Structure formats: C-alpha cells, structure tokens
Amino acid sequence: MIEDIKKTLWATADKLRANMDAAEYKHIVLGLIFVKYISDTFQTRRAELMRKFADSQDDYYLDDADPDLINAELEDRDYYKEVNVFWVPEAARWESLRAQAKQADIGKRIDDALSLIETENPKLKGILDKRYARVQLPDGKLGELVDLVSQIGFGESADTAKNHARDLLGQVYEYFLGQFASAEGKRGGDDHTPRSVDWLLVSVLAPVQGKVYDPCCGVGSTLVLSNIYSSSHNGKKGDLSIYGQDANPTTWRLAAMNLSIHGIDFNLGKEPADTFTHNQHPNLQADFILAGPPFNISNWWHGSLEGDPRWVYGTPPQGNANYAWLQHMLYHLKPTGRAGIVLANGSMSSSQNSEGDIRRAMVDADKVEVMIALPGQLFFNTQIPACLWFLVKEKHTRQGEVLFIDARKLGSMISRVQCEFTDEVIELIANTVAAWRGDSTTGEDYADIAGFCRSVTLAEIAEHGHVLTPGRYVGAEAVEDDDEAFADKMQKLTEKLGEQMAKGAELDQLIRQKLGGLGYDF
User: Fold this and answer.
1) Are 332 and 380 spatial neighbours (Cβ–Cβ below 8 Å)?
2) What's the pLDDT score for residue 195?
3) Domain carrying residue 19
4) What is the mean pLDDT of residues 312-325?
5) Are 456 and 402 in contact (CB under 8 A)?
6) What's the predicted TM-score (pTM) here?
7) Are residues 368 and 460 in the same domain?
C-alpha cells in the first residue's frame, strides 16, 4: 500500500515538473512536503487539545465551554511548544494554501507563509527556502503540485494516526530524495549514498544510545536511519543525540527538514559550513560517527589547516581529502566510540603523497577495525568502486586484528545500471561483524569463510605493505569439486567453442546471400 502511494506521488510530481531540472525541482517539492508536515502536526495537536478541553477527566479540561475561550486557548503557542510542535500562523496553514492553490500568485503566497513560519519558530530560521514566487513552472503547475502534496499525511488526530502520518511523510520524503538523486544522475552536485549502503553502515555501527555525528550529513539520511535503528532495537525517544554538518546551504536545509519530519531533535550547527575549516562541533566527542563524503575531494585544503590537531597520524595530502575525513572522525570519537565511512577504493591501497604513511600509522595504532569491499554500480552518480572503513578510538576486543569482508559479489541488480544490498545481505554482514566483536545476539561464534571474511593480524597486514583491500586477505571462494579432470573440461570447452564458430560462419554466409539478393556486392 505505502509503496503504491510513494510511486504514484512520485510519478505525478515528476510529470508536473515539465522541463524543470530535477536538481532545482526537488527543493520545490520537498519544501512543500515539509510545510505540509508542519501543518499536519500542528492540526493534529490542535485536535488533541480540543478533546482534552472537553474531557472532564483531563488536566486540560475547560469548565467554561465558551467557544471564544476555547478558540483563544487553541491559539496559545505554549500548548504546541510543550510537545515540540511548530507553531503555524493561520495564514500559513496548509488548508489556507490549498484554498488558494489556483491563484496566479500562489508562489508568493507560499513564500509569505514560509516567512511567517520562520518568524514564529526561530529554530527554522534560514532553513525554509523561499523560492516559490520565482519558480519557472508552467501556469497552474505549482497549484497542481500543492493539490498533490495535499494527499500526503491524512492529518488524523489519534496518536496512532499521528504516528502513521509522520511515518508516511517521512517515507515519502526519503523516497523522493532517492528518486531525485537518481533523476539527477551524474549531474548531481553531491554524492548521494544509496539507502542500502547507509543502512549497512548503520547496521554495522549499531547505534542505540549515545551521540551520533555525521560530519558531511548531506540530506541527513544516515542520521535518520540511525534513529530508526535505535527505535527498532529497543531504543527510546531521546536515547540518541543527533549532530551533523554540511557545507551546501540547500542540502543543509533539506537535512533539517528531513530530521524534523521524522520527529528527530538535532544540532546541525548554527549554519552550513565547511567541516575542515569551520568545524561546527569542535568539542564534540561522539559515540558513533558515520559519513559518506564525496569521493576524492581535491580542493579541500586551506592554509589554516597546517598543524591542525586532528592530523594525529600525519598531514593529509592537499590534493585528496580521504585521509582528512578519516582523521577528523577519529579525533571526534569518544574512547569507546566507533566510526564508519564510505570512501573510494583507492583509499585502501594508495601510497601517494603521504597516504600510505598515514594508513600505516593508523593500522599500527590499531585504529582500523573492519574493512568492507562493496560491489560496483551501487551509486547514482559515480562508477568509482567504493569501500567501507570502520574505525575505533580504542579496541576492547580483537586487539591487533582487522576483520576483512569482501561483499563485491553480494549486490542485487534492481535495474540495468543499478544494484543494491538486500536486507538479508545487510543482516549477514552486520551479524558477521557482531560475532567477530563478540557482540552477537544470535549466539553464533565467528569463523573465517573463504572468499567472504577473514580476521587478519596486524603483522600480516604489515607484510602486505599495509594495504587494506579485503580481496587480498579473504582468499578465493570455496567451490564444489565435481571430480572432472582439467583436461576433460578443456576438451569440452574447446569442442563447444568450435561448434559456436562453425555456426557463426554459417550465419555469416546466410547474411551475405540475403544482402546479395538485394543488390549488394561483396
């Protein structure tokens, strides 16, 4: 049911964008979804208050049923702020916008509504993107989009309905983010880490309680998934404290909207800013850090970074930020903390410009916990092969060892050009890591599996020049012995090849005959 809703909404929204570029259009659609969310949660709280005011057994009961008194109470902002619901002025409420959707100036009316919402809710200052008055959509299309978004959320008032509405809004928002990333393709300005990779990252880190930090959070997907993981593993609301940062102003806004729609309190810093030169959380010590930065950033360096205290294992090369991200994450970990990051495969073996020296220092200091090789064709806008690094501040088990997992053959193709991990594969990998750590909830003991996983000592890694490519360590996958001698297999293959070549010659002759009959001379 919910999958059908998401697909139908996307198909309609995509049709409405006409010739507008997906990178521009996504801010229009996702901004409207966010306004709908704010209005829905406001109306849900309003309906809840009306019930409480009328219930003589409730602490909120109003003895005087005077309609003017009730209406005045319903407009008291404190009732909404006490349950972390944004206050929405009457002119900015969704039904007001929907009633004006067919007006020629609907774009300006939406911008005015956003300004009102920002004024009443300082936390949203600078987050709402007021671009609707200048949007380049054909006449009437913006109004049609307002009508479409009106279908999301339902706005029921019971607690279960409220949660359902929030879940639906959150899922639609996330689905649209993924669809827009796919629509933008290689033109997209930022790498959008696919959901299955994000979920694998989260599942291996297993955040249930503590501080979670993403130093390049993009649209906030990994932070949302961390909260979902915690909730599904008996975590309670507030067990995770969410921190993030991103340099792109529009992406930073989308992250704030995404987290708000999912009902998550967050700290994304006071403004969008570069993590290396304008660290928004300089004193943060996190329990879990996870990130999927753009690969191999070459223009990240600034002179102010020389001698930075984050470069414990060596100054990263100015032409590639990979080892800057790794060391930034280590620097911000608690002693018991873990970090996971998606990087290009080259980070596992490169020896250029001090990268090999930094990697050796990190390995020798026992900061690398797990390395996972990923399949190709996972990412929307790059074909660069990728891997996952998992780091620790201090190892409490498996000192002097690194777990290598080769997951290159475990992806499932979902289209001609795109693959992803299934939930079963993600669970397999996460359970393997948990068993290796001694944290398995299934009671299974860890064991090396040829071609898939192997626990390797630091001494062996040193013998391989501190290269961290899993395929170098896990060995070849075991194959069944069919007792057929190599010479016999070769004979059969040679015969089959001869048959195919003979058939190809026959087809070539037939094609020549047909073309000759049409007057072509060979």
Assistant:
1) no
2) 85
3) 2-186
4) 96
5) yes
6) 0.79
7) yes
